[in-house]
Amino acid sequence: MALGQRFLRSNGLRVTALVTLVTFASACRTWSVVPLKEIETGQPVELTDRIRVTLRDGGEPTILNLQRIEYPNVTGVVEDEGDKATPKVVTLDLRQATQVEIWSVSGWRTALLVTGIVLGAIAVIAIIIVATKTSCPFVYVDDGSGLRFVGEAYSGATSRATQREDLLPLPSLGLRPAMVLSNEARETQFTDLLEVVLVDRAPGTRALATHDAGLVLVREAWAPRSATDLEGRDVLGVIRDPDGQVWQTDLDSVARRPDSPLREGLVVTFPAPAAGGPLALELDAGNTLWLDVVFGRFFALLGDRLDTYLDDTDKPESRGPTLAWREREGVDLRVEVERGGRWERVAVVPTVGPASLRRFAVPIGTAGGSEVRVRLSGGVGFWQADRVAMASIEPSRPTERRFAPVRAVERGGIDVRALLASHDGNYQVLPVRGERVDLSFELPPPAPGLERDAFLRTSGYYRVHTPPQSELSAGTLYRLRDEPGSLSRFSLDLFRGYLGIPSGPVASAP
Description:
Elements: H1 17-25, H2 36-39, E1 50-55, E2 62-70, E3 73-79, E4 87-93, E5 97-104, E6 107-113, H3 120-132, E7 138-142, E8 148-152, E9 164-170, E10 178-182, E11 187-201, E12 206-209, E13 215-218, E14 226-229, H4 236-239, E15 247-248, H5 251-255, E16 263-271, E17 278-287, H6 289-300, H7 306-313, H8 319-329, E18 333-339, E19 342-349, E20 358-366, E21 371-379, E22 383-392, E23 400-403, E24 407-410, E25 414-415, H9 417-420, E26 428-430, E27 436-440, E28 451-464, H10 474-482, H11 486-499
Antiparallel strand pairs: 1-2, 1-5, 2-3, 3-4, 5-6, 7-8, 7-10, 9-28, 10-27, 11-23, 11-26, 11-28, 12-13, 14-16, 15-22, 16-21, 17-20, 17-22, 18-19, 18-21, 24-25, 24-27
Helix pairs in contact: 3-6
């Protein structure tokens, strides 16, 4: 997920060379949002992009080597069933689709799945992400039954200054699992550390990764007593269970409102445990596909200054302003607990990526009464949640063991184990989409009577490539830097432009 940002001014912060350059490029503060339909120019895209579309008519799915995106249609090359040697060009109307899948390292993976009619706008968004995606390394696991996609590594670390450790939950592993770290985006990916972490623990407990790459032991979680969105609508039935019924912003509805909000989120109330003790919020959550589109367009605003900007954000002094801007704009998820009638911030959750939801814990301290009220908030259209629960943290710390890969090979059979062995600034690099590292591990069996949880610990960052239709827009960059809530406004105006409706006013952030 492309999430860099350096255009934040604060007292005592040196004005960077890039900001100076942008200043002279344009003195006016115009607001420029390129809608998605302007990306759909009909120009050819990489033919390595393969999609499979199932239409409502119930026929066989059509596999396309993607060529063009022109709302509401996609065009690509498909082989004629009667003559495999003769390719033909087919155009499909995504408004008639019920399922859209993309070809990845592990085979077909669903990009968009609905039970009714697919809105053309949402379907095209999914396909544009296939063609122009900026994200982070994809992780696949093979424990004997084929590669399975499990998540994204160090999402949101779009500069060396914001490099971070990430702890990705893994499915149950055998003793000799294989994995793949794959670049499936338009970026260069730098991985500094990669290892499997095992926690063997007593039955009845569970090990959870925390939002900041730590580990906690918890017992069974309990569901909330009530849950509303930030405007008071009841959403308990949506986030109570991990059932695939996901809460997220209805962008179409919000974009048409005359008073669109700048933040969206949830207020969730839990009964406090009688035993007291430290608590952890347990989330099955992730980012939206739409956030990927928004940041692709953000980077496009830098035009031919993108490399200069990326060089600047690699500097250590850019880390603080970058993270502050991300929290302010709701790119990262703010977690607050109500104490004494006031909301107290307890955590800021970095992005986990849009390709899949992730289960993780956010420690929030102890309960101060008979109930615990938690508020989650982010930018409009940036986050989604399937389940929100609460669990008590066990007093004993989890005992973890770390295992480096016994095999780590990139293209040409090059052994890169030494590059992944420690957090030392010597990076394994995946320079372009399609590059991958094949990994193998040898793990010991769990001790008798114990159960096991597994995680993949990584540390790294990535550097995005120039998006399509890029052009420097200094005025928009200024406003994104200076105005709180401007990224949500940018998001909504982008969506409005795509739907062909005029921009409107927005409400203040809560």
